[in-house]
Write a structure and sequence with these properties.
Distance between the termini: 41 Å
Number of strands: 2
Shape: globular
Radius of gyration: 16 Å
Strand content: under 5%
Structural class: mainly alpha
Length: 158
Amino acid sequence: MNEAIESIQHSLNQMIETSKNLSEKSIRWQPSEDEWSIMQILCHVEEAIPYWLNEIEKLLESPGIEWGRGLKDEKRLAAVTNTENREISDVLRNLENVKEQVDKVLSQLTEQQLKAEAPSRNPRFGTKPISFIVDHLLVEHASKHVSQIKRNLSKLPS
């Protein structure tokens, strides 16, 4: 679990450090209508990681309950669509706090808990162990958004 915690925190650190050195214009710039701005990515991660940590905590309290959400989830969508009213400094500060939440929740997991299976609300996932949520929806997800930020930076107009 230490590797997972370090990986997620490393991804969050990369997002924070990269964004701290960018202009507001660069952070809010969208490469295209179909692509998120860096600000949208940061706001999505700020909402998504605590969401998945909360889902893990719910599964620990009530093993076997249904977990997850769909792509049309209101809170998920709102995190990305309401970025114009958000201050970058607040989002970066919240991401710092997310790193602490990651450590708090994941450091308590035992091997037995990680193996516990529960059905997902998303039929694509089916029944998965808690380790799937950690590996796929936290570790991989955070890493993919770091890559997305790097792609955005490579497309920034000169």
